[in-house]
Prior knowledge:
The chain has 19 helices and five strands. It is mainly alpha-helical. The strands form two sheets. Strands 1-2-3 form a three-stranded mixed β-sheet. A two-stranded antiparallel ribbon has the order 4-5.
Amino acid sequence: EAPPAPGAFPMVLPNLIELAEAATTRNSTEAPANAVGAMTRAVEAVFTSPGILIAGFMRPVVTDAAANDAGRDGAEDLDHGLDGEAIRQVFTSILHTYNSEVVVALANACCTLLDNCEKAAKTPNIAPQAEWLKALLIVSQNPVMGDTRHGPSIVTRLAAAIAALSAPSQQMLALWIGKMPREEFAVRLVRPVQKHISRLCSSTSAMRQNRPELLRIAALLDYLHDINETAGGLIAFEEFHNKEVSEYANLRDEYLLSVEQPPARAPIRSLCQVPFVFTPEAKSRILQGEANLQKRHEVTNSSFHALLAGMHPGHFQWMHITVRRENLLEDALNEIIRRPQDLKKPLKVTFMSAGVVEEGLDEGGVTREFFMLLTRELLDVKYGMFIYLPETRTYWFNQASVEPDVNFKLVGILLGLAIYNSVILDVHLPLVSHSASERSPLNFR
């Protein structure tokens, strides 16, 4: 059965703010039952009908001349025409009735509207009209989404409704959401979604049991994350980290699932497809696990080819480099140039001093010392590749350096090699360098 069209209901617009005032309970005094009943009926009528809902929140119609100007600028498609302040006032008035019946009516009405929106998007020959998108925009500002009792149902249905939209409709809604005030975007949307995800991930067993729902809500968070990025960072990226996901997720399984997933982003099968949800510590563990898997793969391949060639496989299981302490950087760069095919193997370092090989097994300590000394030499101002910026306490590339560009590339490989081998480097670079390494748009502010 097709859902009702947005304009199928009569445009009867009850004054929700006046009704809320009559139904408000203050100082433990009960509001009249008839006032509460009138309020709940009005909430149900307005918030289950896209037509009534939108009509009640539209801004006054502009003049023909102004409308023509907006059309010439291409703005009419980008402006939803809704009165954001009126939406906030109505939601605030409803909640300030402090009446559970009214709040339940609002939650249930929004769930009904979202269910109908999802059906409309899935019904053949009924395109997701702009009215449905406007209704979604209004419901997405409902503060009840942050409520522990009623919020999960609304968040779940909002995720389903948005997922059912066509790509152009999703893009239009994203543009509108991206124009929300920063705090409202965080408080009304991102944090309630995160709260629901945390509830689904209260333990490892809960994550397994709730996985289908978790992935659907993760897709909604991914949608909001894209909006945030497109809008230039409405809120801090830390808002998208989730402590419970990072703590209870089986990171190895999530990574393996993401490797098996085709390049297309949808549908989400692994939380690694939404990496922003992980804390830096969890991402570090994922990177270490990925590096270990790649090392084992490289060792297996090398051993197999060595056996085919009639050679002992033990000689090909490491990237074994020997460096002179007095010529550390040059030797390290030469080893990278000479053996690029071995970079993904486990690293083993041997030092030479005055032409004599130093004794000792590399069980991690020698490798860490190698990268520590290497970093110190790389960042030494007298070497000329980097300069120190005291105002930010970071290092930056020396524009006056006479070193060829290839040497900077080799330095990048060395830093990547350290991370690959689980060595934390004391290298402080500006944030813009991380954006450059990710090929993200650069912001030099």
